[in-house]
Amino acid sequence: MSGAVQLVRDPIDPAALMARVARPAHGALILFLGVVRDVNDGRGVTGIEYSAYEGMAARELESIADEAVVRFVGADVAIEHRLGYLTLEDVSVGIAVAHAHRDEAYAASRWIIEEIKRRVPIWKREHYVDGSREWVDPSGAVSAELAQ
Q1: Could you give the C-alpha distances from 60 to 45, 67, 79, 113, 128, in angstroms and in order?
Q2: Which of 52, 68, 105, 148 has the fewest Cβ atoms within 10 Å of its own Cβ atom?
Q3: How confident is the model at residue 139, as a pLDDT?
Q4: Would you give the DSSP letter of residue 131?
C-alpha cells in the first residue's frame, strides 16, 4: 500500500487521487471528497483547522487502507487527509476506491470514511462567523470551547 495514504498540507487533487487507483480491470471508481461546509450545528463556519498526531495518524490511515483491501478483495484504495487551516469548500479528505464492481466500491468507500472518523487521531477546530473557535469531536459533538 506504499503511497496509497498521505497526510498533506497542500490542496487535494481529486484527479490525481483517482489516477492512483485506476486499473483496466476496475469497472467502478468511487471518489469521496469531504469538504468544509458553511454551517455546523446551526452555527456559521468560516473555516476548519485540522491537526494530528502525524505519525500515529499516518499509520492508522495505512492500516485502514490495508484492511479495506483485505475486506473488499480486489479493491485499490488511495486516501489523503489535509492538515492545517482550510476555508469553505476546501477538500479535507479524499478517498478513491476502485473495484471491478460498484457495490463493493461503494461499500469500501463508506467503510473507509467511517473508520477514519472513528480511529484516526486527527482533530478539527471550527472557526465561526462570530469569531469564536471550538474543537469538535469527530462524531460531531463539540468537545471544548477555546477563546480566540
Answers
A1: 28, 10, 11, 12, 30
A2: 148
A3: 57
A4: S
Domains and CATH numbers, the chain: 5-146 (3.90.1170.40)
Residue 134 makes CB contacts below 8 A (sequence gap 6+) with 125, 126, 128, 142, 143, 144, 145, 146
Question: Which tens digit of pLDDT belongs to each residue from 93-103?
Answer: 999 999 999 99
pTM of the model: 0.90
Residue type for 142, please?
A: V
Cell 458553511, residue located: 38
**Which of 30, 55, 35, 31 lies closest to 45, judged by CA?**
35
- Hey, CA dihedral for 13, 17, 18, 20, is it positive or negative? positive
